[in-house]
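Job type: complex structure
Entries:
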Amino acid sequence: MLFNSVDFAIFLPVVFLLYWFVFHKNITVQNVLLVVASYFFYGWWDPRFLLLIVFSSLVDYSVGLLLSRTQAQRARNLLLLASLVVNLGFLGFFKYYNFFLENFVEAFTFFGRDIGASSLNIILPVGISFYTFQTLSYTIDVYNGKLKPTKNIVSFFAFVSFFPQLVAGPIERATNLLPQFYKKRVFVYSEAVDGMRQILWGLFKKVVIADNCARFANIIFENYADLSGSTLVFGAFFFALQIYGDFSGYSDIAIGVSRLFGFKLMQNFAFPYFSRDIAEFWRRWHISLSTWFRDYLYIPIGGSRGGIGKKIRNVFVIFVVSGFWHGANWTFIAWGFLNALYFVPIMLLNKNRIHTDTVAEGKIFSSVTELFQILVTFMLTLLAWVFFRAPSVTDAVLYIKKTFTFSIFSIPANFQEWLITLFFIAFMICVEWFQRNRKHALEFTQGKLPRHFRWSLYVLLFFSLFWYGGAQQDFIYFQF
Amino acid sequence: MDIRKFIRGCLKFLGIFLLVCIVSFFFNSFLLKLNGYKLEPHQNILILGDSHTEYAINDSIWKNSVNLSHSADSYIYSLMKIKRMKQENPQIDTLLLAFSNHNLLTEYDERWLLNSSHVKSKFRIYTDLMSFKDFKFFLKSKPLAVFQGILEMPKYSIKLLLKGGIKERDLGKFQYSNRNKLAESIERFQRNNVQRALEYSQVEKENFFDIVDFCRSNGITLLLISTPIHEVYLNNEKKKKEFELLYDFYSSNLKDVTFLDYSFFKLSDSDYQDMNHLNHKGAKKFTEHLIQDIKPNKIKTKFQN
């Protein structure tokens, strides 16, 4: 079920009313409702996928319990291994089987050996990368003694399948989300109202920004060979805004919906395009995944400890694995590799933590230097997004080559057609710039803005969804 | 208490939203009405239909005619238009109505009549022309598209206001096209041409006969017209079957109605924008010829048989 669909517009109020008015007296019953609602939400795509999530939940629940009863290190290692094999096995099979097979076949063919293997027609279960990482975090935390395993199977199943963040994150840690299923949730008016604002802003970013940008980005990337350099720059720009609007929009909706049910999820995006260097960008983009890799991969393999060689290796490992997490294609690996190349010099100069505050904190405008830094960082990300979006690495290289020709100085042929979308992008950037200290762009301090102004803004934003929304597109991150 | 306050707030927000929609719905109808549907007193010929007539008949060189054809207009919209136009313009005595191989096929129910994006966009334009029966039909068939159409009304009302009221473009008008994509359209046709189901839509047949009856009872001469079509299309076996079906339908149901069949009208390739639609050059040649044919007494001798 898509957040920007009529189905969800009916589903959400029904679950909300049942949750707070019918099943509010008992936490377990409330959790059962959440599990049923989440499975209904997920099964709406394809009920067969439910088997996977149920099996994965059962395995990790059992492994957690067994870990609590086992002291022998060897047995504990085996239990952790079992969870890793099952979860990563599913992920590997559904997401990467064909990729590895095709690459093996190509490699053998290159060396003159023809091996007769054919790829399978595998449907990728929606959001498998997200819930797999979420359940893994539980098992690893239990294994490391950071978390007590739960005996409450309903809470655990609700934690794994919690519908607002099930298919595209934020990838929650068990340490944050699971305990919230044990406690009685209280409806907090201010939280719910702010949640609604966050949902509205998320929908605006998805429907008005991302879906419109998608139209232009798709056409430009499909026909890049025949277009001018300036048009290709806009193509990359539209994709950058599409993926931001799409994914941060989804996260805002997910967090907003969770708040309606009394849950607090972690912030997943913190206005990343206002970053002054690539290290800051990665602290602000897809925070739940970056911190997941930091805690469960980067630090265990040594992090920033050790010699220069080891540090560089670790950075490349985390970025390349992160790229590969996004999809079974060399383009994602190239995207990760490029980001590692951006990051390594900053890390070696020990400047990767100089921008931990918000840009131009307490001021309206940034300094010229900060603006320059923001623009350079944005340009670097644009270049990387070309690899992310292009169908192959060769296409990405050709796209970039075609961009840097004299035609980059020409006026794009379709500029007029883009004007309305560019206007909305400018509007979004302005609102987010002035709200960059907040958790989301529509978070207002009570009484700071006149009520009529706020309500008019909400109604206009709501209408813009219907008036200027692009053709409905799937959320990009569903495929990951 | 908090949760009730929250729900009240949500309902209030939805209320404001719906209120804006309702006000826009009536305001939109008011604006459409305000501008009226009055034609010049000398304009007695009305041209209705889809993109075929929209691109083929240039009413600027045919002084006593008005072309209100609109792309993807089904007969239900033509029926609404003729009813209102006749009511406001009693001088209308002739209706030219697009009538070709595709108009009544069931396939077009989904592609045109009940296509969500068409219902949505046409709903706001034709609100004022719709009877309760039409409204009920669309609401029953495509409730979501109707709802989306209503949601878009405030935007449309603002546009209308900025333009100073409705222009004939909204109801339909002759489209001046200087495109020439004939080669591409032939290539596409040869690649994708499939045999459509040779069945006629019940709904569209009803609407079509309602137009015929309306013309009969209001003293309007109904002239069915098929505009020029490229020979590659006409010589295709699958299309031939569709035309045979059309001729059968015509001969068994519409003996007293004149059918101006210009499908085979000779034009050069440069007069087409694609296989089924003329560009401005073709439209000029065709309209000049049509004006001569429509002259009194000429129709019968030329087309009746």
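Summary: Chain A has two domains: 6-185, 190-276+355-479. Chain A is about 65% helix and 0% strand.
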